[in-house]
């Protein structure tokens, strides 16, 4: 019975891998690079991110006033890194522009280092990697491929199907890996480097997949979240984070809203640091109207930094804390549900898990290649056996006819 079940799972594993192989290679290769997206961009464009610490930092309020005056716009948010040698990022909205532009400011001199209006080569390259990973670069194709959907939607669909097939391959691979005899378990955990290239390729496929199993499963089970709406809603309902879409409110004539009050960014930052004392990056969102709260989020930094930002809300007049939504206060299910992105990218526990995800992504990239070679070698071996049997079966006939 076990042989029959194992054979069925082998067939499913094989055809799932052959069908999605090329897409999986493209998605996993770009994912391997994109794991360190932030680090690559900050290293390549360090002139905008890294500054020389001075004796005293300029107050955020002064930097904001200076930036708004020189660029004739309104600051909508500010991001403060938890390191002393990092720039401060102000998002500034101008009247003639649709979206805010990020300006990188030296907090010791007040000078504008750069903006994200013009893409650097590193940003452009990583943008292509993201496009390949998410939409297989089909969003870069100008002419529509299908009339029923956009190229981005088509890329998302192909990606989602391939990811589901990869997940199916992971699940069936678990069953296939388990040996029939306990004595053969060691063979599935090591690579016989003294064997020929076919044996090494076979061992690499099985052994590396086994050691990366949990990471491959997490990556593949979270991947379809961005491809299928039904999968996204299912994930959210499973982990208790689903929120039904709000019905459109009736159009009513509203009284004109009052503009937001003036408040001190430095005081907001001070209150945030007092409430959340751990090292981390802080983002302050500036409300547009007087009846909106000041939204602050803070995320941890460090080698084992836990993903999941803490959210604080302050009222504008006296900067009193209105609401605190701490990630640690969520239930375990909700923490998983809200960590879908960090689970997928490996940022769930900072640099420690990002490195493990990086290695697992490399393994995932290699699996369709080593798996296809295993299938091809077996196919060639079967052809050779069939040819030998045919030759043996024809040989007596030839001898009889000769006699």
UniProtKB/TrEMBL annotation:
Task: Note whether DNA-binding occurs among the keywords.
Answer: no
| Superkingdom to which the source organism belongs | Bacteria
Transmembrane annotation, as ranges:
12-36, 157-178, 208-228, 355-376
> Which Pfam families does the record associate with it?
PepSY_TM
Q: What InterPro entries is this protein classified in?
A: PepSY-ass_TM
- Whether Membrane counts among this entry's keywords is yes
Tell me which UniProt keywords the record has, alphabetically. Answer: Membrane, Transmembrane, Transmembrane helix
Q: PANTHER family per the record? A: BLL7967 PROTEIN, IRON-REGULATED INNER MEMBRANE PROTEIN-RELATED
Full protein name: PepSY domain-containing protein
């Amino acid at each position: 019975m076990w042989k029959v079940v194992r054979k069925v799972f082998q067939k499913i594993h094989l055809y799932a891998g052959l069908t999605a192989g090329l897409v999986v290679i493209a998605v996993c290769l770009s994912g391997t690079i994109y794991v360190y997206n932030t680090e690559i961009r900050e290293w390549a464009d360090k002139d905008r991110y890294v500054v020389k610490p001075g004796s005293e930092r300029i107050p955020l309020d002064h930097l904001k006033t200076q930036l708004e005056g020189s660029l004739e716009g309104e600051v909508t948010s500010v991001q403060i890194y938890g390191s002393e040698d990092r720039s401060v990022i102000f998002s500034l909205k101008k009247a003639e522009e649709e979206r805010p532009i990020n300006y990188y400011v030296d907090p010791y001199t007040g000078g504008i280092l750069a903006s994200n209006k013009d893409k650097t080569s590193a940003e452009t390259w990583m943008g292509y990697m993201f496009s390949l990973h998410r939409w297989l670069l089909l969003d870069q194709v100008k002419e529509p491929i299908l009339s029923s959907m956009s190229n981005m939607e088509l890329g998302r669909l192909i990606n989602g199907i391939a990811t589901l097939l990869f997940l199916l391959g992971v699940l069936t691979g678990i069953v296939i890996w388990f040996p029939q005899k306990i004595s053969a378990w060691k063979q599935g955990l090591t690579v016989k480097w003294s064997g020929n290239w076919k044996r090494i390729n076979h061992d690499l496929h099985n052994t590396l997949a086994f050691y990366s199993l949990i990471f491959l499963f997490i990556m593949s089970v979270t991947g379809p979240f961005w491809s299928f709406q039904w999968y996204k809603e299912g994930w959210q309902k499973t982990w208790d984070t689903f929120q039904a879409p709000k019905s459109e409110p009736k159009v009513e004539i509203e009284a004109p809203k009052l503009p937001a009050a003036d408040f001190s960014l430095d005081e907001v930052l001070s209150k945030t640091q007092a409430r959340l004392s751990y090292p981390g990056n802080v983002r302050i969102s500036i409300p547009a109207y007087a009846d909106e709260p000041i939204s602050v989020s803070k995320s941890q930094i460090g080698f084992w930094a836990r993903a999941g930002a803490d959210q604080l809300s302050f009222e504008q007049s006296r900067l009193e804390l209105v609401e605190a939504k701490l990630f640690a206060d969520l239930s375990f299910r909700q923490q998983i549900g809200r960590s879908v992105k960090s689970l997928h990218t490996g940022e769930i526990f900072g640099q420690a898990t990002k490195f493990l995800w990086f290695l697992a992504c490399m393994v995932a990239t290699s699996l369709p290649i080593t798996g296809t070679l295993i299938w091809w070698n077996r196919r060639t071996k079967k052809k050779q056996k069939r040819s030998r049997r045919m030759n043996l079966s024809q040989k007596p006939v030839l001898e009889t006819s000769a006699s």
